[in-house]
Amino acid sequence: MADRRIFEDREQFLEALRLLVREGVPRDRIRVFTPFGVPEVEEILLGKRSKVRFFALIGAASGTVTGFAFTILTSLSWPLIVGGKPIVSVPPFLIIAFALTILFGALSTFAGFLLMSRLPSPSGIRSEEEYGNAFVILVEDGGRR
Amino acid sequence: MAFLEKKGGLAVLIAAAGALMAIVSLSPAPGRGGSLLLAFLFFVAVVEGCIAAAAAGATVNARWVGSVRKELLSVTPLLLVASFLLLLLIPFVDSYPWAGRPGIWLRKDFFIGRNLAFLLLAYVTARRFAASPADGEGTKVRAAWYLFVFVVSQSLTAFDLVMSLEHPWVSTLLGGYFFIEALYGGFAVSALLCLQRSGTPPADRAHGSRSDLSDLSILMFGFSILWAGMFFAQFLTIWYGNIPEEVGFIARRVAASPMRELSVAVLFLLFFIPIPALLSTRAKSNPYVVSVVALSILSGILVERYVFLAPVVRFSPVALAIDFACLLFLFVAVVTDSRRTLK
To answer: Which of B226, B234, B240 to mutate to test the interface with A (most CBs of A within 10 A)?
Structure first.
């Protein structure tokens, strides 16, 4: 049976969460439900940092490489001089590389999030409990997880 | 700084520094006006940027503003010093390339008049904002008014005092570039003040809550990207357009040493150093990293102002040293005085 604590106030909720961690309750036994994103929760509960950031880094780096490769190779395979500029002109290619960095980085992060969360699983995405505007802390029993 | 504790000590210091700068800048030796212009451009960006940082924070209820609000707003009287410095620049305006030619916008009296009017307006709006309590009614409205005047004042500084030096070169983006950079500098000063004031996080900041320093680091990180975006938007337009007077502006600054190295240094100081340094979460709350980044940003703004002026303006090293020493001393004096009254 899980211990459930419901708060209407964000600060009280955070204080209770900090207290639980200070008391030595294992972080993996604590679950929280919040009506909106509360970044402090991650800082309090995360013992070690998520591996999703590596997906973001690899995705972004591959986006940069793809952006430059795509623009440079297409320009070289169909060389047209535009406005007297060199065939391979880095300044305008930078925009494509930047856009693909963001795109690939975002998609890769999302894919990494799905993979690390063992999603997509409809039961995992949607919680069975609904708490409206309340901030909730669930401390699960030791053997449950 | 014991002198500050006497009644009217700060006013006497401001008057003495103003008088010294007036004597130096009004002497007939070459390069005095250019030196004053460089000092003015940097000083007004930092002072207006400090108040703008506090105002921007106040409009969004930023938590970090609370710890440095008093110090940031203590620089408000320095806007009067900036107005005085602008008056000292009147003889120098004759050396602008448009001087003596008929015109409506670029006419000496209107040129000085509008810049002076907006500096004084910035002082009035900043004073009204500083006088209102941090969480009082109407504070956000006063902050918004200051921000509006700040944007116009910095834009005018860019268009009039810098861009018209290279008349007929025109850039509609330079105004925005200047006020974004001033705000960027304001956040850098806020971080330094925050560090100087509270070496260790306050006791009420429990585990898991971000420190004010981290918030300021995130702002500096974000503004470094915004600055690079503004820079690149300007650079790409000039590069693609290839219009002689626009390309000439860049060519004069990258064609020969040492301007070429200084131009590259600006890129590093304002973007390539802050970005990797503040990338990790841990670095954002590391006092040494944040200090280096904040100083890098302020140095970048100073070097960039120099790069803007150097190809067309003469400088006097002695006048430059005196002007910067006076302004730095005044800045430290008003901030120290505000801390003394806090105790």
So the answer is: B240
Burial class (CB in 10 A: 0-12, 13-18, 19+), A102: middle
Instruction: Return the pLDDT at B1.
Output: 57
Suggest the residue from A25, A27, A34, A40 to mutate for an interface test with chain B (most B CBs closer than 10 A). Answer: A40
Residues of B in contact with A15 (CB under 8 A): 206
Q: Tell me what pLDDT residue B13 has.
A: 86
Which token pair is B34?
């250019």
Alpha helices in B60-138 (DSSP H): 65-73, 78-88, 90-93, 108-131
Question: Which element (helix H / strand E) includes B260?
Answer: helix B259-267
Q: Is A25 on the interface with B (CB under 8 A)?
A: no
Q: Is the pLDDT of residue B201 over 60?
A: no
Read off the pLDDT of each residue in B248-275 and give the average, rounded to a whole number. Answer: 92
Q: How far is B209 from chain A (nearest CA, A)?
A: 6
The pLDDT, as a whole number, for residue A144 is: 43
Beta bridge partners of A32: A137
Q: Is some CB atom of chain A closer than 8 A to the CB atom of B203?
A: no
Instruction: Flag if B206 and A91 touch (Cβ within 8 Å).
Output: no
CB–CB of B236 and A95 under 8 A? Answer: yes
Of A64-78, B20-34, B317-331, the range with the lowest mean pLDDT is: B20-34
C-alpha to C-alpha distances, B174 to B41, B164, B213, nearest whole angstrom: 14, 11, 30
Cα(B309)–Cα(B37) distance, rounded to whole angstroms?
A: 9
Residues 218-247 of B with CB under 8 A from A: 232, 235-236, 239-240, 242
pLDDT given at position B256: 86
Q: Count Cβ neighbours within 10 Å for each residue of B256-275 and write b for 16 or more, e otherwise.
A: eeebeebeebbeebbbebbe
In chain B, what are the domain boundaries?
Answer: 2-195+212-342
B207 pLDDT band (50/70/90 cuts)? very low
The pLDDT of residue B202 is 47
CA distance B237 to B86: 32
CB contact under 8 A, A43 and B208: yes
Structure tokens at B338: 């505000």
* H or E stretch covering B254: helix B244-254
Mutate which of B209, B218, B267 to test chain A, going by most A C-beta atoms within 10 A?
B209
Residue A143 contacts B where some CB pair is shorter than 8 Å: no
Interface predicted TM-score (ipTM)? 0.70
A to B CB pairs, distance under 8 Å: 33
Half-sphere exposure of A18 (CA within 13 A, CB side): 14
Q: What percent of chain A has pLDDT over 90?
A: 37
Q: Is B70 within 8 Å of B209 (Cβ atoms)?
A: no
